[in-house]
Amino acid sequence: MDLPQIAQLFRWQHPLAGEAHALLRAAYDPATGQAVAVVSELADNPDDRGITYDFSSVAEAALPLLRAKLSPQLSSVLWIAHFGDFSYHYVPGPESFTAVGLKVTGNGYADDLQGDRRLTEAEVTALFGGQPLAPVAEVLAGLDPLT
Known about the structure:
There is one protein chain. With 147 residues, the chain is an alpha+beta fold. It is built from 3 helices and 8 strands; from the N terminus they run E-E-E-H-E-E-E-E-E-H-H. Strands 1-2-3-4-5-8 form a 6-stranded mixed β-sheet. The radius of gyration is 14 Å and the shape is globular.
């Protein structure tokens, strides 16, 4: 099944260290109104501004992009943190995907680390309508840099 998808670099505000950036890839299912968003930690993002410190800030910065590029009618988003050899200047181990259990609050998202769970690459592929995610380096090569 071909789902509408996006891939782009985006900026977000780390609550302690300032401006940060990451790679956002997402797919949207118009039949359900649901999206899946994979946020990849990148090695050129400063070490003190990682996506896992406050994933709710990451999601709040990415949500307007998802609404603008996929659909203003998004009903829900499954957020996934993604790490691999593209994330650090050393090899941290195999690529990993973690579904982040964000809670929707009156002020946006809250991340209490409850409900986070690991996903396999096959599970992420299924969430993208059977389309495997392209390697991060390949995606980055096709994107304009942040300015």
